[in-house]
Write a structure and sequence with these properties.
Blueprint (H helix, E strand, L loop, with lengths): L1 E5 L4 H5 L8 E5 L9 H11 L3 E4 L7 H6 L1 H21 L4 E5 L28 H21 L2 E6 L2 E3 L12 H15 L3 E4 L5 E2 L1 E3 H14 L6 E2 L6 E2 H12 L5 E4 L14 H6 L8 H15 L7
Helix pairs in contact: 2-4, 4-5, 6-8, 8-10
Bound molecules: NADP nicotinamide-adenine-dinucleotide phosphate.
Length: about 300
Amino acid sequence: MRILVTGGTGMVGSAFKKINTSHKIILVGSKDYDLTNPRHAKKMVMNIRPDAVIHLAAKVGGVKGNSDYVADFYSQNARINLNVLDTCHDEGVKKVVSLLSTCIYPDKVEYPLNPSQIHSGEPHPSNFGYAYAKRMLDIHSRALRAQYGRNYVTAVPNNMYGLNDSYDLNNGHVIPAVIRKIWESKLSQAPAVFWGNGRTLREFSFAPDIARILLWMVDNYDDPEPLNIGNTGEISISNIVQKVRSIMNHKGGIEWDISMPAGQFKKPSDNSKFLALSPGFKYTDIDSGLKQVCTWFMEKYPNVRGN
Ligand SMILES: NC(=O)c1ccc[n+]([C@@H]2O[C@H](COP(=O)([O-])OP(=O)(O)OC[C@H]3O[C@@H](n4cnc5c(N)ncnc54)[C@H](OP(=O)(O)O)[C@@H]3O)[C@@H](O)[C@H]2O)c1
């Protein structure tokens, strides 16, 4: 099968390079095709003629970027998603697997997060633009299935980390921000300052695991319901800080800036459906994943994205 991966230059997209598969994987980024432009989306699908698309392309950011640029996050992601799904349908692409996020779940909700709750309340105010644009990927996929019989499915990962992440401190995610702050604190010997109070809880998945699951979904998952695919088990941000400090041998001071946003307190997810469908799948544990990412970062720094 020819599988086109949009967002192929990003953290999750680049993880496909190391996967052993009999499928032909074609990775594309925004320099190849700007998917906010419908003509580029059309050109991409007509040039590549994929049998399936794994749709990852998105304007992605952390809690501050999402709230400072909430309109851009909505508008750009809504356009990208409309263009990709409509073009895939128009050009007869048989399977599309689109990536959502646990950010799309309602703010006030019972835990653990289950896909039946996705549209049952407002998302957290810090990222409502991104969240609604992503929710519409679910609506659009199900609508194309209902009206035209398209086998377009969606997956919901939780927080991800991996090689080739963005280390932009104002608009990045928590793990890359922690890694960069600790490393720069070690180099400068100034204290590392983190946002929030450290008690916020998150679940983290290693990007190469998510890439493997998305490929599995191309072959094996045909349900209209979004599938939670993240590694479960909550970890506090202060625990992540301690793990990274230990890997990087950081002995300097640390401080918590409670004036900065920390996002939702917790959002544990339920991945039992995925595990039942794919028995034996083993997620990379956080210690091993963090070690790989920190080692990669220390070798690459300062030549990392978002610097
Ligand atoms: N990172 C997380 O923790 C997380 C959590 C949940 C869900 N997700 C979802 O997972 C997917 C992949 O995330 P990621 O962390 O790998 O993101 P990333 O590293 O920021 O990569 C984003 C990708 O999207 C592409 N892109 C952005 N704007 C585009 C445009 N206008 N036209 C075409 N391509 C465009 C980028 O291309 P260029 O680099 O070439 O510009 C890049 O390849 C996204 O859908 C994201 O919403 C991520």
